[in-house]
Design a protein that fits this description.
3-stranded antiparallel sheet
């Protein structure tokens, strides 16, 4: 599924349609927030108008990294809000650079991204 987004001023990007991806994190109960939801089956839905800052670290803002940065930022937001435990998401902490860490974490949790 294609992620359609636009550039912003405060955040860099805003999602223009809902984006759903199957991930390996499956909470005991469904998580429902204004712009994010995660089902107990592992369906992460990032809702229309969700804003994020794009790829970080040495990674540049290219189309190849937009979906990964979107999923990564959504998962970290769920952690900051206390909806997910950091231990559940931080799987590959010692992989080296920020880019590699973020990319590897995201691909491991959302293997569907690696196929696209």
């Amino acid at each position: 599924m294609k992620a359609c987004y636009r550039k912003l001023h405060r955040y860099k990007y805003q999602l223009m349609d809902d984006y759903t991806i199957q991930i390996d994190i499956k909470p005991v109960q469904n998580i429902e927030l204004k712009f994010l939801s995660l089902s107990s089956e592992g369906a992460l839905t990032i809702k229309k108008f969700y804003a994020w800052d794009g790829p970080s670290g040495p990674t540049i803002d290219t189309r190849d990294f937009m979906r990964g940065s979107l999923v990564h930022d959504a998962l970290y937001q769920l952690m900051r809000l206390g909806e997910l435990d950091y231990k559940v998401v931080l799987i590959v902490r010692e992989n080296g650079t920020v880019r590699r860490h973020n990319l590897m974490d995201t691909l491991r949790l959302a293997p569907e991204l690696a196929k696209q």
